């Protein structure tokens, strides 16, 4: 069991009634709660959500507070400070004065910084420190009126050749307030991508998807991400730029295996972080399985850190992997399904 969950169970006497677990780890915490506690989970991680549902755990996959009544809330600290600000606001706008919020997280994950964010809404108390984690409690003294989701949106403009793209990104979404270096290295090559039915794996704020839609307005873009905030951000980016929403297919995925088949192209700045931890499974699976999801003449375009050894993985199925660019610490990799391999 996740050490954060173990710390929660150490202090289970503080818990009662219907407890909402926000951003909970994918483990059996709900099944191990004391008898006086009923749990629901609010997560924006689709892989975790599917796992919870598969274990008959009540789970809500959303960017917004579930439409349920709860007695207490436990927030598992997210990596993003801005996302925690959003979560705290949403929670205190749904609860009443006197109700308790618990905050749990790893020391290396910023729990002490996060505990200070609690102080805006009431008096805080550290309940436990164990397993390199801390558990804090706050009794709500100040509630707020719920602000709409777009209040938390950050926007910035990206120049793309002679065109410009206004990017919309919600809290916690990769590269929320600037164009990341990897995508910047990839952008000049997007006009070369074969048009048609295209998947953007790990779509984030929708920069790649939106630019491809600008280049060819009638092609179908499948924006794939595990994160509900990323999918919503991509939709907002399309709306802000007046792009064709009818040809945008937002699809939550547990991993690349959930991607559609018979694609003309797959384009990706693949993720390799899961919260504060490094995880290469999703991107390595993309390299290995991409050809299975492409038409015979389909293309794979990836931008990745130079130190990540993806070309051999791609070559195993495609037969050849071309390095289109190698700059600023990133490589743009290309493979075509029609090649023998």
Could you explain the architecture of this structure?
With 341 residues, this protein is an alpha/beta fold. The protein has 2 domains: 3-140, Rossmann fold, CATH 3.40.50; 153-337, Rossmann fold (3-Layer(aba) Sandwich). The protein contains 9 helices and 18 strands. Helix 8 (281-289) runs parallel beside helix 9 (311-318). Mean pLDDT is 93; it is low at 273-278.
Q: Would you give the CATH topology of the largest domain?
A: Rossmann fold
Silhouette: elongated
CATH class of the largest domain reads Alpha Beta
Secondary-structure element series: HEEHEEHEHEEEEHEHEHEEEEHEHEE
First-residue to last-residue Cα separation: 42 Å
Strand content: 25-35%
For the largest beta-sheet, the strand count, sense and barrel status come to: 7 strands, mixed
User: Structural class, please?
Assistant: alpha/beta
Number of helices: 9
| Oligomeric description of these chains | single chain
Radius of gyration, Cα only, in angstroms? Answer: 21 Å
CATH architecture annotation of the largest domain? 3-Layer(aba) Sandwich
The level of helicity is: 10-25%
Q: Say which CATH homologous superfamily of the largest domain is assigned.
A: Vaccinia Virus protein VP39
In the predicted model, the low-confidence regions spanning at least 5 consecutive residues are 273-278
Total domains: 2
Domain Methyltransferase small: 165-333
Subcellular location: Cytoplasm
Family: Belongs to the methyltransferase superfamily. RsmC family.
Enzyme class: transferase
